[in-house]
Amino acid sequence: MIDLHTHTLNSDGVLIPTELWRRAQVKGYRYLGITDHVDASNFEEVFARIKTAADSLNGGAPPYLIPGLEFTHLPPDLIGPLTAKARALGVPLIVIHGETLAEPVALGTNRAALEADIDILAHPGLITREEVALAKKRGIHLELSARKGHSLANGHVAALAREVGALLVVNTDAHEPSDLISREQAGRVARGAGLLDTEVALLLANAEAFARRLARIS
Questions:
Q1: DSSP collapsed to 3 states, 52-80
Q2: Bridge-partner residues for 66, per DSSP?
Q3: Residue 178: is it exposed, middle or buried by C-beta count within 10 angstroms (0-12/13-18/19+)?
Q4: Which domain holds residue 97?
Q5: Do residues 120 and 96 touch, judged by C-beta distance below 8 A?
Q6: The model's pTM
Q7: For the chain, how many structural domains are there in total?
Q8: What is the pLDDT of residues 85-140, one digit of tens each?
Q9: Domain CATH code at residue 31
Q10: What is the rounded average pLDDT of the residues 26-43?
Q11: DSSP string over 120-179
Q12: Which helix H or strand E contains 97, and what residues bound it?
């Protein structure tokens, strides 16, 4: 399993990074991205904590822990400047909390995120075709979410991504152990969004290649 969107008690998750890593290990994960919720007030501190955990755990048994951040509920005009600061800090994995149907995310968040230096637009809700085309142009992955509520628009996202040729990734947005899933379940999430078996196989292979690239720069 490749999962590039999870949370610990450094934001609103329930586990410390090492326990989340161990729970993921038991599930057969190969790469785990920890991307706690941040804004201008805490992104430097949170990244330092996750990176410390990654430095202590990587080099042995999988999963490889990729330290990242999820900028969440930012005013759209702050997304570009804050993600630039995060890159300057050395953050290898940047996720933006997209315009999910389950929360009152500010309109314009998806567009601002896709114009910024990010890796994944999480649960982008009723993203437009123009925005999906921008994601393709910039090589940004659009998320199919395994999380209740955030998954409501998976079919819409998958259909537009197929039409345009944009990159997709399945993530759990895990906040507790029961949120973690197997590779097989990730495939079912993708199929439930309307993808064909051949498309699911390509999605999972691309996710692994993407994770390997992130691991090389983390």
A1: HHHHHHCCCCCCEEEEEEEECCCCHHHHH
A2: 33
A3: exposed
A4: 2-217
A5: yes
A6: 0.97
A7: 1
A8: 999 999 999 999 999 999 999 999 999 999 999 999 999 999 999 999 999 999 99
A9: 3.20.20.140
A10: 98
A11: EEES--S--HHHHHHHHHHTPEEEEE-STTGGGGHHHHHHHHHHHT--EEEE--BSSGGG
A12: strand 93-97
